[in-house]
Amino acid sequence: MKDKLKEELAGVLAELRVGSTDLAPCGPGVSHLLPRSFAALSDPFPASTTTAASLAATLLRLADEKLNSYPYKDVPLCWRRLYTDAVLLGALARLQQVEKEIEERKKELSKTVRELDLAIVIAGAPGEGREDMVLRLISVVQAELASLVHSVESDNDDRPSKRRRLSFSARPASSLPPPYIHRPLAELPSLPSFLLLDPIPSHRVPFIVRKAALDWPAVETWSSLDYLRRVAGEGRVVPVEVGGDYTKEGWGQRMLEFEEFLRSLEEVEWNSQEDGEERPYPTPASTDDGSPEVSSTSEDRGTPSSRQILYLAQHSLFRQFPSLLRDVPIPDLVYSSPSTDGTGESYEPPATEDGYILNAWFGPGGTKSAAHTDPWWNCYVQVVGSKWLWVAPPSCSPYMSAFGTAPPSTACSDTTNSLPSEVGGSAPAEQYMTNTSSLDVTVPPPRSSNSPCADEYDAKKPSPYPLAFAEHVEPHARQAVLEAGDVLVMPPRWWHAMYGLERSFSVSMWF
To answer: What are the residue boundaries of the JmjC domain, all occurrences included (predicted)?
Structure first.
């Protein structure tokens, strides 16, 4: 082992010893095993690293069992900390075990990167310096992995040709048309540094600033999947949603290699181009009141149904890949600490060290976030691609048919007198999604200023919505399409839904 690597591993081990007493609440068993792990890792004999790896695996299994025995928000801190420290100890042990066949070593190192990622994603890597240690060891492991991969490729003269890689385009041929735009969302000419809620009424409602983030480095760099590959490196894993809509049956979550996720995005676009799919972006028409309108049926939208949609949604990706933060200048507005929610009610920002929560949203066309509410102000930046947006004010809450609430009694048409079967939701949905509507707001309603069934344009069609929704929500709902570089500012508790029109990358900042 090279001297520089030895120094790096010894430094991480020394830092791990500091604060190990914080794990005392985990019980005497952990207090007994931890010193043995440290001693084994400090022993120069090869057999000791095997012992250290075994002890780390025992501690990790114990921590994992404890994490799975509580609702996540109730997991005691000591068990999340033990999970993190056990992963770090296991990584140190494996890095000291070098007498292995190349393929076996590659598998072992890939497993190590995965476990280190899970320490951030699942446990949160709590404890002084722990997250930094995890990222440092990921870099060390990836460097060895890269050297092994290079050596194997150099010895293999019959390598298969590389898979064709695609990059985002401004609007690829597979772009989906937006569901409809009946009443466009308000737009402001520039992004304010502070929310002046009393003198400026437009700051109290959702608004869009077009191209406000167009100068972000991310708008250009994140359009390249190869750039994202280089940032991530070998073996990284991320949590993805399986299925385009988390309110529907069959939706799930799983950990996936980041490379596999990127390949799935490439294949979606590659397959659509191979099949000759063309979904032209519609030109806004004119409504009776002169506002732009884009409308299509659910069939016209071409939502992918024959393939599995993978969506990296509401994930703190920047903790795993902190170098991406260089591409994202946080707007001054996010640091403005608003004192009210826009209605005059007192307001508390997220209780984080920075005062905001930064999440990534990355997926193909056809991804859908059902209409829901969030408790904080949101500065939402569409970095790459485009999304359709639907919003409605908090006053609409009684008519949104949220999971776990009684649905409105009647629909607009006598032929549609009940809600779809999924509206009631399952028991878990009723318990955990009370801030989420069971109605699919992407379905175009008839265009009428009075009743959803009164307009000649769609007079013969039954409304897809309950009468209460048609009367109390539709007149107040607004829609828009967010393009690359656009910024949306959303007050707390406003209902909003998103629909991906193409492969897109977005960043949300709750503040």
So the answer is: 292-511
